[in-house]
Amino acid sequence: MQIRNSVSTTIFPAAARLTADSVLSECSFLNSLNHLPPAALEHVAQYFRTLSEPTRLRILNVLGTEQMSVGDIAERADSSVANVSRHLAQMARHGLIARESQGNSVLYRIADPTVNELCDLVCGSIAKRLEEIADERAAFKKSAPTARSGSARASRR
Q1: What is the pTM of this model?
Q2: What contacts 24+ positions apart, CB below 8 Å, involve 115-124?
Q3: How far is Cα 140 from Cα 41, in angstroms, rounded to an integer?
Q4: Cα–Cα 20 to 30 A to 132, which of 1, 27, 111, 147?
């Protein structure tokens, strides 16, 4: 769901409005950790601390793009309802999770779509590193002399 700002669409013509790409390119320096004040860095650190718990990552993985109840999340994340509730509350405090009441039920969803992008980026980076390590090991095994060839050389002497 995309929310449009009615003020910006009525006052400014489409050509004059900033697009996400133009804002990102113009303000890319703001995304650098080098230019953030200490208080902002503390918020960034807290965000990453919130994501550093494996159970929370499992919860985010289970939620994906769905809305789910605590019980459904707990069942799919293989955790207790109490434990999932505690982690959902922590993630909600940091804006990662949103809750919505529907009748007698409360449904949870990922509130910040950049969480999925961040997880994809990190998982891709880890996968790439593991592939590089596997390639290095494979190359090492190919170049390392086998025990048989080493003993054959010793017997020739």
Answers
A1: 0.62
A2: 115/51, 115/60, 116/60, 116/64, 116/65, 118/51, 119/57, 119/60, 119/61
A3: 41
A4: 147
Tokens read off for 136:
């290095």
Residue with tokens 């007698």, as numbered in its chain: 104
Which residues partner with 98 through β-bridges? Answer: 109
pLDDT digits 0-9 by tens, 95-133: 899 999 988 989 999 998 888 888 888 888 999 999 989
Tens of pLDDT, residue by residue over 80-89, are 999 999 999 9
State the DSSP H helix or E strand holding residue 102, giving kind and residue range, or none if neither.
Answer: strand 97-102
What is the model's pLDDT at position 146?
61
Per-residue pLDDT of 17-64, as tens digits, reads 333 443 344 444 455 667 888 888 888 888 888 888 999 999 999 998
59, 77 Cβ separation under 8 angstroms:
yes
Contact residues for 112 (Cβ-Cβ < 8 A; gap 6+): 95, 96
CA separation, residue 117 to residues 10, 26, 51, 63, 96 (Å): 32, 21, 13, 14, 13
- Give the dihedral sign, CA 134/135/137/141: positive
For residue 51, with 0-12 CB atoms within 10 Å meaning exposed, 13-18 middle and 19 or more buried, which class applies? middle
